[in-house]
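Amino acid chain:
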Amino acid sequence: MEESVVLYATDGPIALVTMNRPKYRNAQSYHLLDELDAAFKRAVDDQEIKVIVLRGAGGNFSSGHDLGTPEQTALRAERQIPAEGIGFYENFRHYNYDITLAWRNLPKPTIAMVEGFCIFGGWMIASRPGPTAPSNTPATPAGRALPPPRTPGPSRSARRRSCSSRCASSPRARRTSWGS
């Protein structure tokens, strides 16, 4: 199994969560999604953390779902995840709905710092937390899987923008009062 596919660091009140599979352009394996979920929980539980920044290593945010890297194939076999039927559906629901719903409702402001590829499942992750701050490269939205957030916190403008499949420049994201 791959080691440390999600890096966690802090810089004062900011948690920096980095997807770390640059070889596969940060494709979302089950292992990565499990570690990402643990990192978000760690940031939420830390009272010193006021905002979470999610980014990808190696110049890309995420190339989307891991559809068959050797590590993902081995993990499916190890966990005995069937290729079809109710077991397949339960696994699919957990990774594509349950945890992204939980991430959407994080109680702390979360910013996706998008650079390079941000395709399909990558966009699902980038659009869930809150504002998307591009690093001078376009993202490729593939639709939204969940309804807009209805939790208190960011301004109406920030919430609307976060679910509109549009990117905001860093200055615009700051002006929408996400962090205030």
